[in-house]
Write a structure and sequence with these properties.
Elements: H1 6-10, H2 12-21, E1 51-55, H3 58-68, E2 72-74, E3 77-79, E4 83-87, E5 93-95, E6 122-124, H4 129-141, E7 144-148, H5 153-165, E8 172-174, H6 182-189, E9 193-194, H7 195-229, H8 242-257, E10 263-273, E11 276-282, H9 298-309, E12 313-326, H10 334-345, H11 349-361, H12 384-394, H13 439-454, E13 460-471, E14 474-485, E15 518-530, H14 539-547, H15 556-562, H16 574-583, E16 587-590, E17 593-596, H17 598-606, H18 609-612, H19 614-629, H20 634-652, E18 678-680, E19 687-689
Amino acid sequence: MDAQLDWITAERLNLLQRFYLYIHTDKSCSRRELPPFCALSTNQPAMVAMRLYLCEKPSQAKDIAAVLGARRRGDGCWLGTDVTVTWCIGHLLETAPPDAYDARYKRWVLADLPIIPDKWKMTVKPRTASQYKAVKRLLGEASELIIATDADREGEMIARELVEHCRYRGPIRRLWLSALDEASIRKALAALKPGAETFSLYHSALGRSRADWLIGMNMSRLFTLLGRQSGYQGVLPVGRVQTPTLRLVVDRDRSIADFVPVPFWAIDVDLLHNGTTFTAQWRAPSDVCDDQDRCLNQALAQQAAAAISSADSARVIKLKTERMREVAPLPFDLGTLQEVCSKKLGLGAQETLDIAQALYETYKVITYPRSDCGFLPLSQHGEAPSILTALRQADPSLEVLQGFLEPQRRSRAWNDAKVSAHHGIIPTIAAKNLERLTGKHRAVYTLIRARYLAQFLPNHEYDRTQADFDCNGQALRAVGKQIIEAGWKRALPEALAPARGREAPAPQTLPTLSQSVECAVAKVNLKDLWTQPPKPYTEGDLIKAMKNVAKLVEDPLLKQKLKDTTGIGTEATRASIIQGLLDRGYLVKNGKALAATPAAFSLIDAVPRAIADPGTTAIWEQALDMVQSGEMSLEEFVTKQAAWMSKQVSRCSALSLTISGPPPAGKAAAPWKKKRKSTASKAAGTRKRTARPTTR
């Protein structure tokens, strides 16, 4: 990587070292360390006590208001005796565009770059201005504020930016919800958190937002203007997360295009014993094989096939049987759910997220879906018998599992040490209206439910038998699998799905064999094969690659540091990143496969390598985690981000671009603008947020 990458290269390893040390520091936050709007005020004028709950969306507010007894509709709120519940519609505020700082920035001019605000400004979003006025009025009347937005970094920002903008100075507490059914809401209301406990999430989200603005706005203007100099008239959006994601697809497409197939040969031999036919494979000498044990010598393979064909039988020379035990897979995190739904149900990443969000918000049958963790807290285990009973009552087809389910069983999923801000996605006790779920919603719910049921079923056990044969001097091997205990696989519909594409075929069952037994040679099949190129990314594959970006980083030191980290983007944003690239025309879908367009190739070739480097983006995510932990201040993060970005603008301003192809046909938007889209839920018409700007 370029040695001039400023703090990303010169300091990032040191930064990460600090990051891995921060968990040993005291993360407590005193009152004096908080900004005025986060601290408990002792100088408030006397007023009629009114506790205000600030939710993220109307549907969420309605659910919470019903539990609180606030059933009277007011202006942008629900009213109770001493309680008021109001709501946002995603972000009611947005980061101001460049011309809010200086009118000359309305025109895109190279000489004006970089644009770095001295003091950041927020503006009221015009489309939701009426709700902003209602929230501002209520904040002015409230004696206490309960933040009840989504329990994540972006949800915290939605509330805190309003608190700051409206200059609320009263006490703040936090409602931390993992599910929206009545029982879960009541449980969370009884365990409100101090406002200071989650305040750092706001600074982390604010750092993310400002970094996205700095890089997206400046680099998009820069490359769009450079493109125009070369005759390209389209907008060239560059983003902190978007561009590295696009590079993953471009690199994969190039590896497919550059792939040179190599021939290899294999021999399948059908053997017969006691009336049972099974298949063994020829094992070629290692000196004629590649690193995947594929024979590259045609003449040798033909000689071996002839030798096997001339033999009447193959003799067992080695026999080994092992009892294998597989533990149940963890409950889903969002990324894993998107992977499985892409593979098994053919759903896009955003479609899966939308369905999961509806299952959470509208139907209330699953817990919070935007989780990055598949583990469960031990405290939740006590609710398991009630949830299992509710699931069986809601769906009679689960009665077949009754004799196998063990409600007291504690699988590896129950681990407090590995639970992050959110636990794995699991069904709620509110399963009685299951008949309302149809089609894709029912299919996704069934997968989520199955993963939870699997935690209370025995291990999957089978005997793996490996039999080695000598057949006229040629080595053969057959592998068989005999299921002893189906265990948790009884609950998993995806485990029973037929194999497709290049998935491994279903394992065979071998007959009873013993040492030195002779098996008749029934058929010999010499296969003339070719090595295959990498598969194109599907949305599920790309989500997985974004999560596991460390595998794609070449620098060994950085690779180690990135291991088991957040990767590119977050669970809540990856789907929208992919969808944004599709909407802008930089990616297209061929069936389930994703492919980059010519403009995408040109853009990736033009931008600085550091901008498109997945490792760089992952480092930024780790730096944001440090902001959240208090190890790095928001100001330090933004200052370093601005300095790094300024360096890139300076280095790239004299580039000469060559962009091939017409501008991509997609949704056009100001590339610096931060959007919090609210789209209508297909199931219930509720509005839900999209937690990212357009140029991430």
